[in-house]
Design brief:
3-stranded antiparallel β-sheet; elongated; disordered C terminus
Length: about 180
């Protein structure tokens, strides 16, 4: 194994990973399952199974894209800072001492169309002179208990910051 990659893996063992939820993938999976049931019914009724080839392509592509892109989005943290890794982005690190603000945000229309950032998120802002110094913490991708633990650590280390609370109405979707 390459030495830089090995060093990164060793460093990651000290970091706490925010655990994932299945919430962001349920809607798409239910829709695709509904389309599958419908196409199966139509194919059976017409005795024409050619439409099923589309499903034989769509399901593996959906599974690959979900696993490849969705599982690459990770937020890790320890007592010194946060790290965000996402597919297609350079790793972002923000030390707790560098945090300039924390906000609860919703995606705007351009972000929704590009699917570039989580829809409901808590954003930890870093150095003001660097526009890319932020970490998005999705309220759907990660367990709320883990997010609350991270925010409690930030509150303890940085009492000068206003740290938002995790919206309680999201708890119904993420039961343990």
């Amino acid at each position: 194994m390459h030495s830089a990659r090995r060093a990164k893996l060793m460093a990651d063992r000290k970091l706490v990973h925010l655990r994932r939820t299945i919430a962001p993938y349920v809607g798409q999976t239910v829709i695709l399952a509904g389309v599958t049931v419908y196409l199966t019914y139509v194919s059976h009724a017409r005795s024409d199974w050619r439409g099923m080839w589309a499903l034989a392509i769509i399901w593996p592509l959906y599974a690959f894209s979900t696993l490849y892109f969705g599982l690459k989005y990770r937020v890790l943290w320890d007592e010194t800072g946060l790290v965000m890794r996402a597919s297609g982005l350079a790793e972002r690190r923000i030390e707790l001492d560098e945090i300039t603000g924390i906000s609860s945000e919703f995606a705007d229309v351009t972000e929704l169309l590009a699917q570039s950032r989580p829809f409901r998120r808590i954003v930890v802002h870093g150095r003001k002179h660097d526009p890319k110094a932020f970490v998005d913490i999705s309220l759907r991708h990660f367990r709320l208990d883990d997010i609350e633990e991270l925010l409690a650590t930030i509150r303890t280390r940085r009492p000068d910051l206003h740290v938002p609370t995790v919206p309680m109405n999201r708890r119904i979707w993420q039961r343990n």
